[in-house]
Specification:
Layout lengths: L14 E5 L7 H17 L3 E6 L10 E4 L3 E2 H6 L11 E3 L28 H5 L6 E4 L2 H12 L4 E5 L9 E3 L2 H11 L1 H7 L1 E5 L2 E13 L2 E13 L5 E12 L2 H5 L5 H20 L4 E2 L1 E10 L5 E9 L6 H13 L5 E10 L10 E8 L3 E10 L6
Parallel strand pairs: 1-2, 1-3, 4-5
Antiparallel strand pairs: 5-13, 6-9, 7-8, 7-9, 10-11, 10-14, 11-12, 12-16, 14-15, 16-18, 17-18
Length: about 375
């Protein structure tokens, strides 16, 4: 997918619109998407037209920004033909856009959703941590028991975002309690990831975006912050963004750890396209976790992919905007920032994207910064 040549889009775009496909998308995300949509419209030399709430709204050629990863039926209904028509991704089945594809099933007879590809891990096994994906309580219990032999296990609802809903179990009793709490319906609907827990963890963000004829690839690290309930959640990403493909990124001054992260993300992306060739994505983001296992050995692997507008997209789009303004610019450092609480302050040189109350998350602020380019990752 990273090396594929794009087909031409449908011609000159009439404008940029947000495609609201998920009624649960928070208001603060839509407001940020509006700001980013306006900037994408400037790069495409067209107008930002607001929300497209039904396929009929997209009769004229428009560039779409969906709030979630699309399924094939959705992207056809919205008139999307190539990756040049939208910012995000489309997958053949909903589970392909979640954490679920990052691990194999626990056995050949385990429950699997329609369309599941066992080939994914044949290609990506060197790019992920030890773990399993389960779509039934019995399979989750078997997977957890196998992993507990080697140490603590992290449970992650496959469709959850921003690190929410995760917990770590260390005994079979804790595993049973956790599975009972989740319930069989939740596990069967979207899947549950069971993964070796990693200590001293650092999460890299690796990805690529293609907008207005510009391809940019990046690597950086994520930060965490406490939300209004005191839970550690995603706090932003600091990225080194280069003009060009993953090969151009690997030619940049990267640390050994960052080079490994990019290499694994690239392998994971290739595996996903081999297993699910219907994937279409102009925005790709991969979380790569590095840390130590129970024996103190270094481990590294892709946790999940995001083929939709996400937390790092503000940094991605601001970097693309700089590349569009300066044809000679080859790299830039940018950062997305998320903070919670009324007393939280963003750095003074930040561009404020959102500040206010969210009905579910409480008061939060979101911003983006353009940094100097003299650091090595």
């Amino acid at each position: 997918m990273g090396e594929r040549v794009r087909e031409p889009s449908r011609g000159a775009m009439q404008g940029v619109m947000l495609a609201v496909t998920d009624a649960a998308t928070p208001e603060h995300e839509l407001k940020v998407h509006t700001v980013l949509g306006t900037r994408i419209a400037e790069m495409l030399d067209c107008r930002f037209l607001g929300l497209a709430e039904s396929p009929a709204d997209t009769a004229d050629p428009v560039y779409l920004i969906p709030d979630a990863t699309l399924t094939g039926d959705q992207h056809h209904a919205l008139g999307i033909k190539t990756e040049a028509d939208f910012f995000g991704g489309s997958v053949p089945f909903a589970f392909v856009g979640s954490k679920a594809i990052s691990h194999p099933l626990v056995s050949d007879v385990a429950t699997a959703p329609r369309g599941w590809s066992a080939e994914m891990m044949q290609f990506a096994r060197k790019a992920v941590l030890k773990g399993f994906t389960a779509f039934s309580t019995d399979d989750a219990r078997q997977a957890g028991a196998e992993l507990l032999v080697e140490g603590a296990v992290r449970l992650k609802p496959a469709a959850a975002k921003a690190g929410r809903g995760q917990l770590v179990v260390r005994t079979p009793h804790q595993l049973d309690t956790a599975l009972d709490s989740l319930g069989s319906a939740t596990i069967s609907h979207a899947g549950l990831v069971l993964e070796q827990d990693v200590e001293n963890a650092l999460t890299f963000s690796v990805g690529q975006v293609r907008v207005a004829g510009i391809t940019a690839s990046y690597c950086g690290h994520q930060t965490q912050t406490r939300d209004n309930d005191g839970e550690w959640v995603y706090g932003g990403s600091e990225l080194l963004v280069v003009r060009g493909d993953y090969g151009d990124l690997l030619a940049a001054p990267l640390s050994q750890q960052a080079t490994l992260a990019v290499t694994q993300a690239r392998l994971y992306e290739h595996a996903a396209l081999q297993a699910y060739p219907q994937i279409l994505a102009s925005r790709r983001n991969y979380d790569v976790l590095q840390g130590t296992d129970v024996r103190g050995h270094l481990v590294s692997g892709v946790l999940e992919q995001s083929w939709r507008i996400g937390g790092a997209s503000s940094a991605e789009i601001y970097a693309l905007e700089q590349f569009a303004r300066d044809d000679q610019m080859q790299r830039i450092r940018v950062a997305s920032i998320e903070r919670y609480g009324r007393s939280a302050r963003l750095p003074p040189d930040s561009y404020l994207l959102f500040r206010g109350d969210d009905p579910n998350l409480g008061y939060l602020s979101k911003g983006v910064r353009i940094l100097s380019d003299d650091n090595t990752y």
